[in-house]
Records
---
Amino acid sequence: MTAAGPLITSHNPADPDDVLLRTPAPGAFETVGAVERAHAAQPEWLSGGAAARSAALGAVADGLHAAREELAALAVREVGKPLAEARAEVARAVAIWRYYAQAPYEPVGAVHEAAAGPGLLLSRRRPHGVAGLITPWNFPFAIPSWKAAPALAAGNTVVLKPAPEATACGLRLAEIVRQALPAGVFTVVPGGATEGNALVSAADVVSFTGSTVVGSAVARTAMARGVPVQAEMGGLNAAIVLPDADIERAAAHIAAAVAGYAGQKCTATSRVIAVGAALDPLRTALADALRAVPVGDPADAATVCGPLIDERARDRTVDTRHGLSVLAGGTVPDQPGWYATPTLVEKVPPGHPLLREEVFGPLAVLLPADDLAHAVRITNSVPYGLVTSVHTADLNTALEGLDRLDTGMVRINAPSTGVDFHLPFGGTKESSIGQREQGRAALEFYTSSRTYTLSPT
Ligand code: NAD
């Protein structure tokens, strides 16, 4: 066990001199201690009953709703999320807690006749114990909520480790959630890899969201312990545009999915595939739409594309376009903060990193395809498989896309970004490991089935 670790520092990405917080990382020993305290609190949280858990989750929703403007402003300041999106994220978090507040009343199993003779067979879902949650910085309220709320509803207790870049958001969330819950039921441990590792080594179920490199390692460690694990990771999402699509509308949707929150969403569009005659009008419409995206101060309610999370992310976005044919953007505005303008490139040579690696910035590549089958092959050719958007006026084409695309989600005539929290969320290949998140799928993940046999004496 190691002692308390180095300082966690979080900056305002729009004004790097504005330091929100400097706090020592608690270290592995303290993290494991938090899991032990959560263990001690779990039996009473479960035995307290459905009504108590439901009321507590409802009270969390009320607490978050009451603090919604303050929380949105904190997300603006700490992770550079444009105000309109930050407000929408907090509203989504509130809705998630309300949705799962009903879950404790849901059935938890089934009753079967015995195969032979009298007696009853019961299957009943039970919580695992302590859920260890590891989250990224880009949705500092919604992602912790969509993991914690179903875990708690099912009778687990929770230890959450937010990303270091979103520590202030995580600690404020903890204050609000804890007001509604008994002691030890929900704990936030700030920190980085050391604390994350310690959590994976001690929790009874692990849910991770973040990069593919870290998620794969987390999943391996948890699996080696025989602990259920899910990891939601990166994406390299495509938008397919057919010649029959409303090109202006498709361009508007795609521009929002490329540039919204500076492209820092796992569901952002980074490849735009124009089929046949769609190429020329789409090139013009999309370049125009990206140039028109409001870039600037995330505290301004009109901003769509704010700063990137840090200098490295900004440089990665801008450097990637070198040597490529740039149709829009690719510049760094002359102002403090880690900004890059929304960028569209084309004529990217085969094997270029842009065609296989996530940039996580406001940048997309335009690719031509001969027909839908070719577009589907390009879409499916990457190691990721999170979400695809298809833009067409033809229902047959849409249905063909649904059948042949190998991504976990397909959105027809809608941006690739924006998901509904009451349906399963996740992808294929290197985008996801394990069971889906959100909706009823989450309640299954945070429980395991027990089979009981009741025989007459
Ligand atoms: P990251 O992988 O760097 O960090 C994610 C979390 O893992 C953080 O809390 C971090 O402190 C922790 N961590 C780092 N090393 C660890 C270790 N060795 N053991 C345990 N925990 C460790 O990701 P990020 O930069 O915070 O987020 C960006 C990434 O997240 C992008 O790749 C994006 O696509 C992905 N993402 C995916 C989804 C999804 O649902 N698929 C949603 C949002 C973001």
---
Amino acid sequence: MSYQHQYVDGTRIHFPVGKVVCIGRNYAEHAKELDNPVPTEPLLFIKPGSCVVPLNGGFAIPTDRGSVHYEAEIAVLIGKPLSTRPSREEVLDAISGFAPALDLTLRDKQAELKSKGLPWEIAKCFDGACVLAPFVVNSTFADLGDIGIRLTINGEVRQDGNSSAMLNPIVPMIQHMAGCFSLQAGDVILTGTPVGVGPLNVGDELVLELPGTGSFTGSVR
Ligand code: ZN
């Protein structure tokens, strides 16, 4: 299904679908569960816009490339250009919305690439590797240090985190990212996943939510 950014009320957001800038190991408990060290500086990677699909209506996963792990994450939609160490105010002004998202990962492939010291694109950038629910407007949250993210699969809560546990909080994270590469309207930030990642299977029924803002469902095809 083709993807266009939209708000929860169905309003289409007329930004192009840009790149998806991601941070790895941004929750200490998640770094631990995969036996990864907690990074001393933010571990960034980028998914291309071509991998974004909507949660609504369900989504397909590859079935011939080993395990596909879900990572529920708070997504931030960028609505204005940001570059070279923007101020806190500039970052806040550039945020258009928040949504629950899935950073899908070919975990077996990633482990193989990691062990060889190779880049992760093959494991992180396949078509459908970024699943986005609709966005809520940025004024929804008074405190960006207190945004929940919850994923329920087949009726069982698998991930239940909060931005308060992020090693790099949302605004400093985006300041750092914009210092590494310019951000543009339509880009999306994935802010890392809390503990509880695991494999997805065809037929799984998912509920993704930023608690308090509504929940979104989709099934795995
Ligand atoms: Zn992730």
